[in-house]
Amino acid sequence: MVFDPTSNTVLKVTESVIPGLYEIDLVVPGDNRGWFKENYQQAKMEALGLPHFEIVQNNISFNAEVGVTRGLHAEPWVKFISVANGRVFGVWVDLRKGDNFGKTLTIEITPGKAVFVPLGVANGFQTLEPNVTYTYLVNAHWSPEAKYTLVNLFDPDLNIDWPIPKDRAIVSAKDAGHPLLKDITPMEVN
Q1: pTM (two decimals)
Q2: Which residues contact 23 (CB under 8 A, 6 or more apart)?
Q3: Domains (ranges, CATH) in the chain?
Q4: With contact defined as beta carbons under 8 Å apart, do 93 and 46 qualify?
Q5: What sign results for the dihedral spanned by CA atoms 49, 117, 34, 4?
Q6: pLDDT tens track of the chain, all 190 residues?
């Protein structure tokens, strides 16, 4: 992917239809060598409305094949998601108690697009290119005792229009076994 260094792209932070979930347009100048970006810049992003959070861990998921489909997980931490390379179809489902329970959002994430995910919102993605490096900053350390709320990637009630259908998606047995939305107790989030 080549980015135009003369483009008028500006850093932009926009709250989505899911309260507390923000879409971030990143500046990615490039030239014949490749590109560069400030993936996360706390002062600039908070000045534009991104909530403050303390980053304690950076996780990276490498996905070799097109159609790798992961999620939908609502972990007990806040996430700042981006890709180092490639493209993914990102999906979020609000699992918090309230009127937005079950509301979904989809966004294509590229090196120029990031997403801030609040507590109680499930996250998932599907790779659109081979060799995608998906990265996320979190405000709590992973532990085996962590309590997740999970929802099935292909629940018909969510009406997610995955670019690569279920029969061609690469999904772990664990993710394929997540419960349907109707069987989930909404999360209580402070």
Answers
A1: 0.91
A2: 13, 14, 15, 16, 107, 113, 114, 115
A3: 53-183 (2.60.120.10)
A4: no
A5: negative
A6: 344 444 556 899 999 999 999 999 998 888 888 888 888 999 999 999 999 999 999 999 999 999 999 999 999 999 999 999 999 999 999 999 999 999 999 999 999 999 999 999 999 999 999 999 999 999 999 888 888 899 999 999 999 999 999 999 999 999 999 999 999 999 998 7
Structure letter (DSSP) for residue 35: E
Residue 99: partners with Cβ closer than 8 Å, 6 or more residues away: none
Measured between alpha carbons, how far is 91 from 70 in angstroms, rounded to an integer? 10
**Residues marked as catalytic:** 73, 136
> What contacts 65, CB < 8 A, 6 or more positions away?
127, 130, 170
3-state helix, strand, coil in the chain (%, to 5): 10, 35, 55
- Report which of 47, 35, 46 is spatially closest to residue 9, judged by C-alpha positions: 35
Separation of alpha carbons 73 and 96, rounded Å: 13
- What φ, ψ does residue 118 adopt, rounded to 5°? -80, 170
What is the H or E stretch that residue 173 is in? Answer: helix 173-176
Residues constituting the chain: 190
